[in-house]
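Box S1 | Example of a co-folding query
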Amino acid sequence: MNIYETLLKDTSSDKKKFVVLIDPDKYTLESVAKVVKLSMKAGVDYFFLGGSLLITDNHSQIISFIKGNSDIPVLLFPGNNLQLNNQADGILLLSLISGRNPELLIGRHVISAPYLKASNLEILSTGYMLIESGCMTAVNYMSNTTPIPSEKADIAVCTAMAGEMLGMKLIYLDAGSGAQNPVPATMIRKVKQSIGLPLIIGGGITTPLLAKTAFDAGADVVVIGNAIEKEPGLITKIAKIRNQ
Ligand code: 1GP
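Box S1 (continued) | Returned holo structure for SN-glycerol-1-phosphate
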């Protein structure tokens, strides 16, 4: 069974997933080793690997370290085409469907298509939606798009439905890394009720309570980056509440 088939099976039996996001610019091999160890112990489901930029040159090194030291699947979550890497297990092929920037809807995909076709990466086409979060996040700025207002759940619902009809395999509602406010529970609930796809939620989730709120509202997968960089011990706490 590949990653997506397993995810679909687990989603249909309401088995929630917890993802640790690793932005290579924020980690050294030493700090990633600690997070990998804690993640293995806690039973983290996936690592997402990526960030808005690529300032350091340790992207490839970090992937090979994770692959050599854990059996947790690594999925690329690329901020740009410089972050493609064949050592990972798969890639969230993101189409930024909340925005109207053609480069991020289809342009970069055209450029990366031959690389991806020749790679061994499992391709997970993802309808990626930015949700307004109280501050300008890096992804808002870098994508040059306007996020969906947090109180406009109907826009999020229609966008997610369109993504599903276009054949996306996953929907990802992201408040953006380091968001002041995470995606509201009401929006998560309404989107989940309107689509039949696994729903990923991330951005600004900093406590077990916020993670539980997202899971209870309908998130199948919760992604945490920033808060774990600051407090790796959070991994154990979040993993515990995942299926409570
Ligand atoms: C960002 O959803 C991820 O794309 C995670 O966000 O870093 O705020 O946890 P945080």
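The mean pLDDT is 96. Strands lie at 17-22, 46-49, 74-76, 90-96, 122-130, 170-174, 199-202, 221-224.
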